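Weekly structure sync, notes
Attendees: PL (lead), two postdocs, one rotation student
Agenda item 3: pending single-chain targets
PL asked that the sequence for the first pending target be pasted directly into the notes so everyone works from the same version. It is reproduced below exactly as submitted, 338 residues in total.
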Amino acid sequence: GSLPGASSHSLKYFYSSISDPSQGLPHFVSVGYVDGQAFVYYDSNSRRREPRVSWMEKVGKEDPQYWDRNTQIVRGTEETSRENLEILRLRYNQSEGFHIIQRMYGCELQADGKKGGFDHHGYEGRTFLTFDKEIPTWVALQPQAQITQRKWDAIPGSNQRDKSYLEEICIEWLEKHLSYGKETLLRTDPPEVTMSSKTEVEDGMETHVCRVDGFYPREIDASWTRDGEVWLQDTLRGSVAPNADGTYHRWLSIQIDPKDRSRYRCHVEHDGLEEPLDMALEEPKSNVGIIIGVVAGLVLLCVIVVGIWFFKRRHAYKKAATSEEGSNSSSQGTDQTA
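Predicted structure, written out during the meeting:
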């Protein structure tokens, strides 16, 4: 079925398994994401599949076996991944120590109703095997993966099961999760748009920054226009980045000749806006305010950079995340030993 809004939606599972969990990391971690938001979590320390968002509690009420069933599935995956670490270590002729297996799989429902599905297995941070669901067959991306590819392709019905998991079951679960979590996942928060500017001392040119903040969903169209046409010259744009509250922000800047100021606009389109916004450029304030602003901005930037560094370090561990099947299908082919 098609979903409200012009957004795409995705259900993805990540898992990682490490051979030497000495740094306090769990041996095995598995995380599920809907639209990039972690909603279920499992690791080898707790050995339980647990909700990461309040709306997942509805699932357990409707389907009392959900948590036990999925815990069993992931425990099976954990066992298999332990065996696979040893199989691949020997196949690559490596000594014991730190080795890592990762898997990422899931499905996407695009705004135009198109569906996508993928399943990638990695070893030591490089893609090892990937599933081509159209044929359907496994594709070996390293010579050592050819043994696994031949083995998995030879299991009767396995590739067909994987294909139907990615194309049907996964999509059904994505739609189910979107309906459970619709208050957060299908909401729209309109962007707030603010403009700031300064004059460059050397050449008298002006730099204008358009900041778009607090919007959800993530898809947004923000651009500079000149005389109503999209203008890409002398412009920079930051990527869409998350805020702590689950909304997003982005910025774009442009450098212009002051006499052309009235020709430019910051143009923003988003699901949360009834109609597109066009913000005019403002005359730069005096330089004293700018200098104070720049210094304050640099201090804030240092804080943000340090914060991002910590965040990435924490996420480097979490991200390795997970994989279980939505539910009743433990698509067997992919839980085979390598």
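Discussion points:
- The chain has a mean pLDDT of 88.
- The radius of gyration is 24 Å.
Action: rotation student to compare against the earlier draft before next sync.
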